Amino acid sequence: EPNITFVEPTETSETTQANRDNIQINVSAQDADDGAGAFGNYRNVTINLYKKGGSSVKGWGSNANGQTTIPAQLNGVPVSAISAGGAHVLALLTNGTVIGWGYNGYGQTTIPLTAASGVSAISAGGTHSLVLLTNGTVIGWGYSPYGQATVPSIAGSGVSAISAESHHSLALLTNGTVIGWGYSPYYAPIPSTLGSGVSAISA
What we know:
Blueprint: E1 47-52, E2 56-61, E3 79-84, E4 88-93, E5 98-102, E6 119-124, E7 128-133, E8 138-142, E9 159-164, E10 168-173, E11 178-182
Antiparallel strand pairs: 1-2, 3-4, 4-5, 6-7, 7-8, 9-10, 10-11
């Protein structure tokens, strides 16, 4: 199992009390052994990001694939959400478009035309990416040997939240039920006892 040490970011002029409510931390420590050789011999891949006031994204930690080097096109651009995957990152802009960077060996940072606008949520998996459109549709792309980026028809509408992991993905429907797809021996199927009334998910 990966060894993970969580360290709180050092207070700077950019993380003052006035800005703390707008700081978002996203840590990824996914195992490198995904069968794809995507991360070389990494056993600990850590990406730490925060956004200040919805407009400034900073990154630190492992940068072997440029995942903590914030792209220039984000300078001064309002950002509403960020998501760190195994070795890539997604950022959702306030205008509903998405920017990706970092490891792109499976096209996971290349935003498809179907996800070019109208995005309301993002989730970066190990080597795949998911977005949720404002119409409740889920779009997936990237590495998908277990079908983790192949969105099932049931997630074609009526989805309120998404979450991607290394080998599987989850979606929360507006009726409070959860669906999952991808590698299933340990992650799925969704237990029948879960039922409905679910308000949040995390893969």
